[in-house]
Automatic annotation (TrEMBL):
Record domain J: where: 10-75
Pfam family for this entry, one: DnaJ_CXXCXGXG
UniProt-recorded name of the protein: Chaperone protein DnaJ
Location(s) in or outside the cell: Cytoplasm
A single MF term (Gene Ontology): zinc ion binding
Organism annotation: Corynebacterium uropygiale
Co-factor: note: Binds 2 Zn(2+) ions per monomer.
Underlying gene: dnaJ
UniProt GO BP: DNA replication; protein refolding; response to heat
Keyword field contains Chaperone: yes
Chain's role: Participates actively in the response to hyperosmotic and heat shock by preventing the aggregation of stress-denatured proteins and by disaggregating proteins, also in an autonomous, DnaK-independent fashion. Unfolded proteins bind initially to DnaJ; upon interaction with the DnaJ-bound protein, DnaK hydrolyzes its bound ATP, resulting in the formation of a stable complex. GrpE releases ADP from DnaK; ATP binding to DnaK triggers the release of the substrate protein, thus completing the reaction cycle.
Main localisation: cytoplasm
Domain CR-type: 169-246
Cofactor: Zn(2+)
Keyword vocabulary terms for this entry: Chaperone, Cytoplasm, DNA replication, Metal-binding, Repeat, Stress response, Zinc, Zinc-finger
Length: 399
């Protein structure tokens, strides 16, 4: 993300509130957007996912009193020209000025790591942009924040489950190839397992400078913001702490997953360098068609063939479920196509309980009848007419 893009951000607009909105108004606006656009409620909807991420990023800043104050101060400086040339690699209107990009520092140094956090959709209330703004507006004191640790890359993969596996939940094993912790140095990158502390930044990952009323911070150039120096690099991983290999990961797919839904496994992506946190694993689930069942939300739907006699006289029929079959009573006189409900035999809900089993009965007409059955049916048909029954009475304007 360019510097100008950061300068143009409007977190209030992302939440649909004014810059004078109260804390309660901001919280209410965020919750409304989050509920409407949460990925679990909108599987496969990229636009909703992006709205959710933007709202989460905005709330992480202006939903926190301290971070909001720092953000407002930054925007006020931008409006007043306090960052002359901001976003174009120029200097600054501050006394003493910022060092330019050619001198090893730019606003991207400040915002780049926040962009990394935003890339995952993860906005911690304990970190985020406040850590970066805090290094900029610290009232002239020394910065108290350490560099946000780097992390491993996220991994995306796809699996295909049959309908019943998806409805009931399943445990599968995936083979993932990518960066994994080095077994020789246990991911530290140091053959002794004890990386040294960077002397330039004293292990904070930032170098700081106070100028007038403001403090300025930038990632330490010597340790690249890690706060550590590898003095005895592991020969197996060349000091990175990671090696490329294939590993097995057990994935628990929760009951009721729908086609196209993503399951996130935190920390199961690629390993971070030198013992830093791993990325996340995102598993997109595809669900195949089932010949017997369909679903509507948490309800399980099944169509059962029945005979005319079973509907006319009433009967008890056996109906399949995701587990053991159940017995369903069909009342006498049930019309063709009626749906009968069996409580609690549908798809398990996350919060407990389950949906219902919806049983639709459909008459199956026999194609071949023997002489005895044909004679009996003719006798019945005549008795039906003699009783005055007309299946088309009142239909298409008939009296």
């Amino acid at each position: 993300m360019t510097q100008q893009e950061w300068a143009d951000k409007d977190y209030y607009a992302d939440l649909g509130v004014s810059s004078s909105a109260s804390e309660e108004e901001i919280k209410k606006a965020y919750r409304k957007i989050a509920r409407a656009n949460h990925p679990d409620a909108n599987p496969g909807d990229k636009a909703a996912e992006e709205r959710f991420k933007k709202a989460a990023e905005a709330y992480d800043v202006i939903g926190d009193k301290k971070k909001r104050k720092e953000y407002d101060e930054l925007k006020a400086m931008l409006r007043s020209g306090g960052f002359a040339g901001f976003g174009r690699g120029g200097g600054s209107g501050f006394p003493g000025g910022f060092r330019s990009s050619s001198e090893g520092f730019s606003m991207d140094d400040l915002f780049g790591q926040a962009a990394q956090a935003r890339q995952d959709g993860g906005y911690s209330r304990d970190g985020g942009l406040g850590d970066i703004f805090g290094g900029l507006f610290n009232g002239g004191g020394t910065t108290r924040h350490s560099a946000r640790p780097s992390r491993g890359a996220d991994v995306e993969t796809e699996i295909t489950l049959n309908f019943r596996e998806a409805a009931k939940g399943s445990t599968i094993t995936l083979q993932i190839t990518g960066d994994a912790p080095c077994n020789q140095c246990h991911g530290s990158g140091s053959i002794s397992g004890n990386p040294g502390t960077c002397g330039d930044c004293q292990g904070t990952g930032f170098t700081s400078e106070n100028r007038g009323a403001f403090g300025f911070s930038a990632p330490c150039q010597k340790c690249q913001g890690t706060g550590q120096i590898i003095t005895d690099p592991c020969t197996h991983c060349s000091g990175t702490g990671t090696v490329n290999r294939t590993r097995s990961i057990t994935v628990r797919i929760p009951p009721g997953v729908v086609d196209g839904q993503k399951v996130r496994l935190a920390g199961k992506g690629e390993a971070g360098p030198n013992g830093k946190p791993a990325g996340d694993l995102f598993v997109t689930v595809h669900v195949t068609h089932d010949d017997v069942f369909t679903r509507h939300g948490d309800d399980l739907e099944v169509t059962v063939p029945v005979s005319f006699a079973e509907l006319a006289l009433g009967d008890t029929i056996t109906v399949p479920t995701l587990d053991a079959p159940v017995r369903v009573k069909v009342p006498a006189g049930t019309p063709d196509g009626r749906t009968l409900r069996v409580r609690g035999r549908g798809i398990q809900r996350r919060g407990g309980g389950a949906g219902d089993l919806l049983v639709t009965v459909r008459v199956t007409v026999p194609k071949n009848l023997d002489v005895r059955a044909t004679s009996a049916l003719r006798t019945y048909a005549q008795a039906e007419r003699d009783s005055g029954f007309d299946p088309r009475a009142g239909w298409a304007g008939r009296a």
